[in-house]
């Protein structure tokens, strides 16, 4: 079955996570994504630990087969060429690739593309149909547009860290690189929207993705600007300011989360834990009362959960119609039949080896009935597709390719 983006060519000038996340989704939907690496520099992800190869997982490369696990995940279904865009001949070749491409994605530092002569205004004149996506910490406009930013810096700048953690603890980042991965997903959405626009009008456009914008647009659904007036702390742990009970609770072998959003949910919970005697208690009759008595309510629930295994507690609560679930660690997740049945957990492919035992990769998250996506091919070796792209796409002869290779242009 064909994929929806087959025939679309993407030039991928991105590194780390935000950009590669966007192009990974494009590749999963069938786009020909061509990663471009400088032949004279190491790839900052492919050469970063932990590695995996024929001798297993390690923090130091043990064999020539060792490749970064992060790179193997983020570069699936992509192609790879090497090209020194700083060289005049390299820039000429790059511009010819632009002529043959639909999308360019980059997350260079400020002003790099302008210095190289590959910024959007320059390329737009050459190829008006080009969709050019840039991903940066603070966006292409505004007083802070020139600042650099890693994931944790953006989590801090956007307000996420100030919300995350417990009231008596320090600001805390999310456990994963949330700003990077969400920005990559937003970039994917922006690119797909630009493609749709181009189908209607024939016009390409500039897609400006700010990691800070992406994070703030999500967290500001919470009325953070009203917390002080309401007497609420910035950080509330696993609670939420509008609902009670809504928290994580200890079982005798782990943790579970219980959430209620209505008075009916509250009564269902009381019945499930055998506390029917509290159903008519006026202190807890409505959400306002429960929020005022959060501590007491949590004590009532903990008295029940701590006497039971997580599995038993979740089963009994769900039988009573309570919205709840276990807090899973990675071992639990890998054993979870639900994710496996949905194709979200698989072996991680390696370009030189068969799937490496014990190392897994996430599946394709968009479930499309008519045109499903997925990752069928392993991450490429750096420069693996030089002959294919430069020969078949640009029509360069083998002697020319060898000459360019010897000169360090490719």
Return residue spans where pLDDT drops below 50 for at least 5 consecutive residues: none
Structural class: alpha/beta
State the end-to-end CA separation.
Answer: 35 Å
CATH architecture level-2 label of the largest domain: 3-Layer(aba) Sandwich
Helicity, as a percent range = 25-40%
Read across the widest sheet, the strand sequence of neighbours is: 6-2-1-7-8-9
CATH superfamily caption of the largest domain = Crotonobetainyl-coa:carnitine coa-transferase, domain 1
Main beta sheet: strand number and arrangement?
6 strands, parallel
The CATH class of the largest domain: Alpha Beta
The strand count comes to: 14
Overall mean pLDDT score? 95
Determine the strand fraction and express it as a percent band.
5-15%
Q: Helix count, per DSSP? A: 18
CATH names the topology of the largest domain as Rossmann fold
Could you say how many structural domains there are in total?
2
Global shape: elongated
Based on CA atoms alone, the radius of gyration comes out at 26 Å
Describe the structure.
With 410 residues, the chain is an alpha/beta fold. The protein folds into two domains: 274 residues, Rossmann fold, CATH 3.40.50; 85 residues, formyl-coa transferase, domain 3 (2-Layer Sandwich), CATH 3.30.1540.10. The chain is 38% helix and 14% strand. The strands form four sheets. Strands 6-2-1-7-8-9 form a six-stranded parallel sheet. Strands 4-3-5 form a three-stranded antiparallel sheet. Strands 10-11-12 form a three-stranded antiparallel sheet, with helices on one face. α1 crosses α8. The longest helix has 24 residues. The protein starts with 8 loop residues before the first strand and ends with a helix. The mean pLDDT is 95.
């Amino acid at each position: 079955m064909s994929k929806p983006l087959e025939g679309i060519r993407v030039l991928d000038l991105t590194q780390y996570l935000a950009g590669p996340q966007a192009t990974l989704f494009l590749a999963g939907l069938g786009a020909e994504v061509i990663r471009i690496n400088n032949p004279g520099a190491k790839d900052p992800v492919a050469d970063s630990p932990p590695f995996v190869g024929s001798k297993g997982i390690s923090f130091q490369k043990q064999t020539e087969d060792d490749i970064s696990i992060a790179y193997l995940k983020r570069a699936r279904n992509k192609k790879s060429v090497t090209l020194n865009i700083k060289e005049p001949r390299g820039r000429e070749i790059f511009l010819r690739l632009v002529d043959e491409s639909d999308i360019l994605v980059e997350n260079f530092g400020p002003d790099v593309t302008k210095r190289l002569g590959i910024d959007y205004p320059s390329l737009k004149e050459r190829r008006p149909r080009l969709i050019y996506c840039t991903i940066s910490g603070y966006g292409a406009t505004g007083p802070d547009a020139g600042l650099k930013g890693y994931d944790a810096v953006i989590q801090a700048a956007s307000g996420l860290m100030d919300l995350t953690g417990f009231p008596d603890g320090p600001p805390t980042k999310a456990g994963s690189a949330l700003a990077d991965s969400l920005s990559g997903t937003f970039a994917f959405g922006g690119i797909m929207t630009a493609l749709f626009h181009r189908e209607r009008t024939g016009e390409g456009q500039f897609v400006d993705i700010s990691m800070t914008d992406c994070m703030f647009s999500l967290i500001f659904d919470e009325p953070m600007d009203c917390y002080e007036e309401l007497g609420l702390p910035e950080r509330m742990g696993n609670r939420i300011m509008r609902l009670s009970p809504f928290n994580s609770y200890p079982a005798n072998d782990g943790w579970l989360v219980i959430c209620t959003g209505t008075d009916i949910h509250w009564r269902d919970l009381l019945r499930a834990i055998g506390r029917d005697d509290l159903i008519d208690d006026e202190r807890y009759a409505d959400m306002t009362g429960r929020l005022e008595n959060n501590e007491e309510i949590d004590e009532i629930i903990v008295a029940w959960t701590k006497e039971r295994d997580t599995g038993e507690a979740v089963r009994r609560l769900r039988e009573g119609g309570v919205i709840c679930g276990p807090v899973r660690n990675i071992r639990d997740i890998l054993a979870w039949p639900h994710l496996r049945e949905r194709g979200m957990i698989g072996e991680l492919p390696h370009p030189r080896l068969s799937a490496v035992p014990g190392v897994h990769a996430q599946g394709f998250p968009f479930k499309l009935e008519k045109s499903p996506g997925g990752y069928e091919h392993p991450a490429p070796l750096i420069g693996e597709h030089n002959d294919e792209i430069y020969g078949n796409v640009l029509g360069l002869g083998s002697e020319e390719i060898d000459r360019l290779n010897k000169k360090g242009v490719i």
